[in-house]
Amino acid sequence: MPGRALLGQFPNGESGLRVSRPGYEVTDMNLPPKALAFDSRWPKALNVHQQGTASHGQTVGFPALSEPPFVVAVSYDSQGRYRTAGCPATTSSFVAQSVLGSGTVGYWVFAL
């Protein structure tokens, strides 16, 4: 069964969020547009405004946006598996949250 969602670094070195349609491998960078349900690199899609890592509980600031962005945070659970969560955000900051309540959180801020 092909992988259908990719959040982070793509095989070509770019970063973002990409979701393929059923039956298509999301890591295939040669997929035609009709094979993708979403790609954050599309000009009128959610654009990555900022990405990075932060400690759990740390307030992360970013250049102000006109609307609060969509923020995705990724951390590991106690079994070492990735867990993702949306983080509430203002137009210029959010508080990084880990599923363990501690540790490092990878994040992506998507401008709407």
What string gives the helices and strands in order?
A: EEEEEEEEE
Overall strand count = 9
Radius of gyration: 15 Å
Main sheet?
4 strands, antiparallel
Please tag this protein with its features.
112 residues; mainly beta; 2 domains; globular
Account of the 3D structure:
With 112 residues, the chain is mostly beta strands. It folds into 2 domains: 5-39, no CATH class; 47-111, no CATH class. Helices cover 0% and strands 46% of the residues. The chain is built from no helices and 9 strands. It has a 4-stranded antiparallel sheet with strand order 4-9-6-7, with no helix packed on it. It has a 3-stranded antiparallel sheet with strand order 1-2-3, with no helix packed on it. Strands 5-8 form a two-stranded antiparallel ribbon. A hairpin with a 5-residue loop joins β1 and β2. The protein is globular. It starts with a strand and ends with a strand. The mean pLDDT is 85.
Can you give me a brief rundown of this structure?
By secondary structure, the chain is mainly β. Helix content is 0%, strand content 46%.
List the helices and strands and how they pair.
Elements: E1 5-9, E2 15-20, E3 36-39, E4 47-55, E5 59-61, E6 70-76, E7 82-87, E8 93-95, E9 104-111
Antiparallel strand pairs: 1-2, 2-3, 4-9, 5-8, 6-7, 6-9
